[in-house]
Amino acid sequence: MYRFILKTYYALTVPISIFFILNSALIHPDYKLSFFKKYRLGFRMFLNKMRIPTGTSYKSHLAMALKILETPPNEPGDVVECGTWKGGSAANLSLVCKIAGRKLLIFDSFEGLPKGDESDRQAFYETGDYYGPLDEVKKNIEKYGAIECCEFVKGWFDETLPGLNTPVLLAFLDVDLELSLETCVRHIWPNLVERGYIFIDEYVTLDYCAIFWSEEYWKRYFNRLPPGLMGAGTGLPLGEYYIGPWSDNENRPLHHPNAGAWTRKDFSGAWIHFPDVKQLSKRGGK
Ligand SMILES: C[S@@+](CC[C@H](N)C(=O)[O-])C[C@H]1O[C@@H](n2cnc3c(N)ncnc32)[C@H](O)[C@@H]1O
C-alpha cells in the first residue's frame, strides 16, 4: 500500500515537476521552446528514466537541461558526461543537446567502476559495478536519445580526461568514487567556460561534496578559493518531500534526495572573516 501511494504520488507529480523546473523566463528564445515542446522534452526524459536503467532522477536531468537552455546559443561549450552506466542520463542530455545545438561528450570505462583505492571512502562498491558496455549504451541512446550529438570516449578517466581540450559548458560527474570525482574535477575545471557548470551525483555524502568546499584543494590545484556546491547533502529542492518512514530511518536526513547538486565556475564558497587574521580576499572565488 505504502509503495502504491508513493508510486501514485510520483506519477502525479511528473507534469507539475516539468512545469516548475522548465518554467523559466531565462530559457533563451532562440531555442524556440514553446510550452508544448517543454512538456514533450520533460515527458521523454521521464519516460527514458523508466526505459533505461538509470542511477539518477529525471528531475536532476531536467535541472541540467534548464541550465543548458538558459545559456545563449552563441556561448561556446560542449556538454560532458563522466559516468554513463547504461546511457540513461546521457540519452536525456543528448535530447537537450539536440535542441541547444551542442555536442555531448560521454566519458566512461564502459567496463564499470574501477577497483576502489583503500583511501577512498566511497570504495564500498565491487569492481565492475555499473557495467554498461559501449554497444548497449549506444543502442539505448540511438533508440531514446539523439546519438548524432554524442561522442564516446572509452577508457579510465585519468587516461582519457587529460586529452580534453575543448570548452565545456556543463559537466555531469556521476562517478561514485572519490578518486574518480577528483580526476574529473581536476581535468574538467580548466576547460569550463566562464559561467560553466558542474553537476554531481552522490551529493548526499558530505565528505564527497567537500571537494567543492576545500580551501586546500582549490588553492593547491587552481590557486583560488573553493566554488562551493548548491545542494550539498540534500540535493536540489525540486519538489520531493519526506513522506517516510524510511527503513533505515536513523541514517536518513528528513528528505528524499533526488536531484543533484551543482556549482558554477564563477561561484565562491569560502569563509573569509577571521577575527585574528588579515582578510583573505574581498569577494569572489579568485
Ligand atoms: C553510477 S554509474 C553512472 C550512472 C549514470 N550517470 C546514470 O544516471 O544512470 C557510474 C559510472 O562511472 C564510471 N566510472 C567511475 N569511475 C571511473 C573511472 N575512473 N574511469 C572511467 N569510468 C569510471 C563507471 O564505469 C560507471 O559507468
Give a quick summary of the entry:
The chain is α/β, with parallel strands linked by helices. The protein has nine helices and six strands; from the N terminus they run αααβαβαβαβαβααβ. α4 (88-100) links the parallel β1 (78-82) and β2 (104-108).
CATH class: Alpha Beta
- Could you tell me how far the N terminus lies from the C terminus, measured between alpha carbons in angstroms? 53 Å
Shape: globular
Largest sheet: 6 strands, mixed
What structural class results from the helix and strand content? alpha/beta
CATH topology: Rossmann fold
**Looking at this structure, what is the CATH superfamily?**
Vaccinia Virus protein VP39
Estimate percent helicity.
25-40%
Query: Beta-sheet strand percentage?
Result: 5-15%
Residue stretches low in confidence (pLDDT < 50, at least 5 long) are none
Helical segment count: 9
Q: On the 0-100 scale, what is the average pLDDT?
A: 91
What is the β-strand count?
6
Query: What is the level-2 CATH architecture name?
Result: 3-Layer(aba) Sandwich
Order of helix and strand elements from N to C terminus: HHHEHEHEHEHEHHE
Describe the model.
- This protein is an alpha/beta fold and 286 residues long.
- It has a single domain, classed as Vaccinia Virus protein VP39 (Rossmann fold).
- Helix content is 36%, strand content 12%.
- It has a six-stranded mixed beta sheet with strand order 3-2-1-4-5-6, with helices on both faces.
- The chain is globular.
- The mean pLDDT is 91.
- The structure holds S-adenosylmethionine (SAM).
